[in-house]
Every structure is written in C-alpha cells, then in structure tokens.
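From the pipeline queue, job 12 of 40. The input is one protein chain; the requested action is below.

Action: predict structure.
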Amino acid sequence: MMHMTFYWSRKVNLLIDSWRTEDWTHYLLTLLACLMVSAFYQLIENCRIRLKLIGAGKPFPSEIQTPLLQRKLTGNGDKLGVKVAGAILFGLSSVIGYLLMLSVMSFNGGVFVAIVVGLVVGYFFFRNEGEDSILVDTSCACA
C-alpha cells in the first residue's frame, strides 16, 4: 500500500518495483542517487539556457560563455542545429523532472529532502550566474 502522508523510514519503494530499500546502505545510496539526479537536472537546465542564448544571438557574460559551442552552432547561420539540440535538452529535462516529481510522490521524507537539497546544490553550482537578468527582454517598452 502506498503512503499518502510523509513518512520517515529507510524502507522505500522508488519508481519501479525492483527499486526497494530494506537496509540503511541501500537507503543512503538511493538518497545519494536522488541528490545527484536533481543536481544533474539543474545542469541540463543551465545548458538549455546557454543554448537558448546562443540561438538568440544575444550577448551574454563571459562566465556563461561557451565559445566552442557557439562557433559550431552559429558559425554557419543555420539555426536548425540549435533547435534540435534545444529540443533534445528540453526532452531530457522533462523526463528527469517528471521522474523527480514521481520520486517525491513516494512521500518518503528522506527522498524529498535529498531531492530538494540536490536542486539547491545544482542551482548553486550551475545556475546562479545571473541568467534572470539576461533572459529578461528589455526591448519591450511597457507604459
């Protein structure tokens, strides 16, 4: 029977029937996997934002500049490569995001905390480079 409230136990069934934890070692490895996958999710989102900036041809700060990728994707003026790569990154990001959501829906407190901590760590290392100020379109003159 699935839990409908948060519970704190080392016994959890995550995503598939064969992913069950019975002892502390398996439980801690599961929490580590949740943490790493959620941090990887932030890395994928960062790559997607960089690709979006490259495709738009917008200038961006040197700390998020990727000159090799920019030269390959925009050197010939063909935007198809940027769109395909963006679609692949979006699909991968969506799959990981939904799997993380389903993992949280196991209602295990440790899994929830591991995923939130992983998202925070991933955001700290991969996404706090000022993209909020970059992605705001200032060309719109609103009254």
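Job complete. The first strand starts at residue 12 and ends at 13.
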